[in-house]
Specification:
2 copies of one chain form a homodimer. Chain A has a single domain, classed as Luciferase-like domain (TIM Barrel). Helices cover 39% and strands 14% of the residues of chain A. The two termini of chain A are 40 Å apart. In chain A, strands 3-4-5-6-11-12-13-15 form an 8-stranded parallel barrel, surrounded by 7 helices. In chain A, strands 1-2 form a two-stranded antiparallel ribbon. In chain A, β3, α1 and β4 form a beta-alpha-beta unit. The first copy, chain A, has 15 helices and 15 strands. With 453 residues, chain A is α/β, with parallel strands linked by helices. At the A-B interface, α2, α3, α4, β8 and β10 of A face α2, α3, α4, β8 and β10 of B.
Amino acid sequence: MCVLIHMGNQKRTLHLNLFLSSLGHHEAAWRHPSSRVEDIIDFSRFQRLAQKAEQAKLDSLFLADRYATSRKAVKYGAISGLEPLTLLSALAVVTSRIGLIATVSTSFNEPFNLARRFASLDHLSKGRAGWNIITSGTDGEAQNFNYERIPEHHLRYERAAEFLDVTLKLWDSWETDALIQDKASGIYADNSKVHEFNHKGKHFAVRGPLNLPRSPQGRPLLVQAGSSEDGKDFAARYAEAIFTAQQSLADAQAFYADVKSRVARYGRSPEQVVILPGICPIIGESEAEAKEKEAQLHELTHPAYSLLQLSNRIGYDLSSYPLDGPLPELPATEQIAGHQSRAQLIRNLAERENLTLRQLLLRLAGGRGHRTIAGTAEQVADELEAWFTQGAADGFNIMPQLTNGGLEDFIDQVVPKLQQRGLFRTEYTGHTLREHYGLDVPANQFASAPQVH
Amino acid sequence: MCVLIHMGNQKRTLHLNLFLSSLGHHEAAWRHPSSRVEDIIDFSRFQRLAQKAEQAKLDSLFLADRYATSRKAVKYGAISGLEPLTLLSALAVVTSRIGLIATVSTSFNEPFNLARRFASLDHLSKGRAGWNIITSGTDGEAQNFNYERIPEHHLRYERAAEFLDVTLKLWDSWETDALIQDKASGIYADNSKVHEFNHKGKHFAVRGPLNLPRSPQGRPLLVQAGSSEDGKDFAARYAEAIFTAQQSLADAQAFYADVKSRVARYGRSPEQVVILPGICPIIGESEAEAKEKEAQLHELTHPAYSLLQLSNRIGYDLSSYPLDGPLPELPATEQIAGHQSRAQLIRNLAERENLTLRQLLLRLAGGRGHRTIAGTAEQVADELEAWFTQGAADGFNIMPQLTNGGLEDFIDQVVPKLQQRGLFRTEYTGHTLREHYGLDVPANQFASAPQVH
């Protein structure tokens, strides 16, 4: 029943990331009787979730991010909105092993600030920081940062690539052994190992060095989630972990093979990139009970809000279309300034299953395009094992529909089954996020001598 | 002996802010035998300091910031470099009452990001966030943010003023009672109380609202430290607490009177602005022992490093001048792009006391222009009382020369004397930073009805 792939002497095990949300990933989670909506922004709620995930030996916690909301959206949509790096810096203090992955956009930040804040979190957490790199995709966000429209897709990725180059230079600007700290001579650092690299490019001019010595991981783990052509190439070039939304095993296998081969084309080892599809588990004593739980959440959705969310996501206003008609013809993927790959996934889903707009909205209410598995703990574990062993995933980005109840169900019922099958760790063996994911510390581009980390 | 000024029925008491540094404010602190330089970036060190300050009922903790270092500077200068908001977010979790003031520059950030991060910290800490507003003043910093030179003084302040306007709009964009969270109807927020304000100015275009409901203090406490003409006007218009470097009682009194009258000219109440000069205490059993401690630290300085620091501070290269000659003629204050008021203070100090460059460097080694008081705990308490009761200060920004030893000396020996004299609280009476400083919550500019906070 349990198929294990062996890589050398190392048994391949899967990775689990908890995608944190305040009350749950389902858009109606806040209305569920179990949700304490009045505490939505309370830190103690996040602390409890983080500690629960760490007790279960999960690899990491992850926070997504957007840079806008609107008067329309807040009417029906629960907003917590704590800035990810701020919240993860606080969570670093109440956890000791679990990784901490924050989403920050390259379109609305400066490399020096971003490099420093992640290096600070990596120091604070003793090597547990990860950066989920996004380029952001909506006009609403752009309008909070001096633009009228979101810059075009390929321009955002062009800026992102230079942003990454500069950020990597900043993280490498202190070699590991640059600190001398010799009280007798008064020499603090060997400044032949501290680099003013003077980057001058199309988007950025940054002298360096960073004003913070090298952090425990050298550089934080780099995570990426774009699945468009630009996004996949970017991921293949830079990412060490990839979040992705995949609705079927076949699609997930195709994505997995595609990205791993792109990684190899950039001269990197495919094993050094971990692919983690999102999964929205809904667990019941029986499959019927799980489906019933899902239906109960679906009943709490507001179609007007769901439609607004979908319109924002694909960058196309759907508010004038009848809910019981089909998804209308959308602009070609390349015409979409925003999240191209998600728009494509949604179009494919509606077409393949011949969904009305109303049905589509419900399919997206739980995971915004990520796959929902409603079933028993055994069924969920079987599905994860199948994807893991059949070339579709190296692990999963877990998106509980409800925090109160749903998250506990996954951790208390599914994780032990994965452990019993030998698919998931029962103790942490590493201390850093990179160690949890089995990834090497990249070499320092400025180091002349071999590096010891 | 103890002169108390009464304001109505409220006895006026002073405020104490701890200016946090890793190993101490003296530039040679890291070389002192008591300093654990190998732990300079370790969070547990900051945690211990923060908790010690909170046990002593101090009003707040404060972190300064710069956005650059250089190969020259790191050779001799200890760098810790954790980004202030990151560190204070972590400290928020291990403290419960003390205020948390982070320095962030308006020249190298975007209002939306800054407003959100401070609101996040204010939520996390349940109303303890403060922002020390700086415009930054060195070319080295500008060169990490796409500039060749630091923008001119008045341009930085022009951007800062618009930055503040936008940031205040963002913090006010959610009225206090905008959240409905009604599960039955599915209405999350009363969006007539959430504002898309569409700011369009010279430097910024920001639509709003913030994607985070109003924080406990409404807006974080606004702190400012510029003492130039531009800086004082900016402070009078916006600041609720002001840090300042003053070398003599007379100068401090003049600054105090000047700023309070400017505050009144902007139609604000002078009592609603708290002025806090920096003080570097060095405490001994006797005055002679304190002076000996100071001399011991001075002996550990490197003149080359001190000179580099001074050159950076005043924006004028002094490396070719003889150490035993006088401070050379400097450009007129208005010609200085960087920190004008500090340059003026340093010039005045050298002139008034007829100091050689070498002597001047030692006078600046401890507090970079802030006043050092080396004496017994009784003498330090007397000096603080004198400034407080004679119209020079509403409290103090405490800058221990050494963290190990010096900070404890102040808290264990000076604070109890101030408490015995009825000059400082023995218990917190408030919960928010604004309550500690006795400052009102400002009205929301978008609220139509009277606000209840």
